[in-house]
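Please produce the structure of this protein holding flavin-adenine dinucleotide.
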Amino acid sequence: MADYDIVFVGSGFACSFFLRKRLQVGPSRARYLVLERGPVYPHEKQVADRRNSPIVAADTYRLETEPRDGFTKSWLFTIGFGGGSNCWWAGTPRMLPSDFEMRTRYGVGQDWPLSYDDLVPYYAEIEQYMQISGPTDSPFPNMTPYPLPPHRMTDPDYALKAAFSDQYFNQPTARASRPLDTRNQCCANGVCHICPVDAKFTIMNGMREVYADPRVTLKTEAQVLSVDVEGGVAKGVVYSEGGKEHRVTGDTVVVGANAIFNPYLLLRSGLDSGPVGQGLHEQGSVRALIYYDGMEGNNGSTSVTGHGYMLYDGEHRRTAGAALLEGWNVPRFRPDFDRWTQISELYIVVEDLPQEINRVVVDPEDETRPLIRYKSQSEYFYRGIERVKAELPKVLSSLPVERIEYLPLNPTEGHTQGTTAFGTDPATSVLDREMIHHDVRNLYVVGNSVFPTGSPANPTLTTCALVTRSAERM
Ligand SMILES: Cc1cc2nc3c(=O)[nH]c(=O)nc-3n(C[C@H](O)[C@H](O)[C@H](O)COP(=O)(O)OP(=O)(O)OC[C@H]3O[C@@H](n4cnc5c(N)ncnc54)[C@H](O)[C@@H]3O)c2cc1C
Ligand code: SF4
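Below is the modeled complex.
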């Protein structure tokens, strides 16, 4: 008999939401082990130390990249209990139905092995559980009302809403618009990677009942080194704790260590079939500063207040990436007397297509870490950015815009994706539609790494919906 029913690798969104559903629907006597590489780093300590973890993300991998026009790509995540829930900004849009069907609709990328409709009940479940603040209207079909009212938008948001009533909305977010038992009300400080008032949903403040369940054992500072695979069956994992190597067995292994470490751990475990490690990608963004004549730019009630879909879906996606416009309310000032606040920031998030050439491998110089070989974002992405710049003056034409100033490309969105794609064909995917490894049928690999394509939408709500679905059907 194995030591545990399920051994989880990582305590971020993917594993924690998988575990939550198993606690609901699994046997009452099941035993679950969660192995987390980083420490528990409490919220108060994060605020005091101004960091999410004592482990610096960039020290955990090596990057080989080719700067393009002076721009160098980087990757960001949190190593520690709760993973990316510590540093995320808690934007929680759903993806659109077309995001799941890029090949069928636009002839690019790959279709997902399931559809938007398959995820609808799970999206709704997670939105309720995370107590999302959101609008009564939205671009998403088959919505259940959000549990909390939306945040107040800024004046530029309201003007865009008036001009594009069915394409501009309040951003749905896990930054609370009302005080809750587990979280405070968001007060628009705009430093959400370390929210000083603990207003955003995190695994630490929102999933206490999951980790307090007597069926769950959490070991932190326990780094998984590989999955033990014998005869096509995952037997458990090898991990290091306190400077020693340990083995633990499990009936099922769920790897949710993020899109850099998921493929790395598969490769370290001898699981190199299919496109494992290939297709590392994420959305990219540019920020535009919009200077107004007489309009206040920073009077919303949270950090990101608006979501614009005017440049998102359509035939242009055959050749150029879709764009999601985020109306920001993080204070910006202009150096003009009496007009300091007649400015706002628009975050323009553009999708990228995964490319085989961008990949994660085991570092040949030091096999204890991954090597990221990243050439650059695709031409599809760059055409998306150029399209937005060409269209933006028209989009903003109903606002009293004096000028638009573009800042350089952001080095990372923190949305690592695509390195263990799920799909129906083992030649082009690593996992099946349940996120089970094609060859090792008791091994799940979960998180954003399963995304065969990435929409411009933030990925985490979709990841939580995906794992909730798979854990229910297990
Ligand atoms: C600054 C920032 C802002 C973001 N804002 C948003 C947002 O607004 N909306 C949104 O949708 N997404 C956002 N994201 C992305 C979001 O954080 C990720 O989508 C999410 O965390 C992915 O969940 P995951 O469980 O797959 O991975 P993670 O949350 O990264 O969890 C992986 C876990 O595995 C652990 N681990 C790694 N290796 C090992 C090992 N060998 N052994 C044991 N444990 C291991 C890690 O320590 C970590 O706890 C943001 C990210 C960043 C960096
Ligand atoms: S806007 Fe401020 S209060 Fe709201 S989640 Fe971000 S940091 Fe916290």
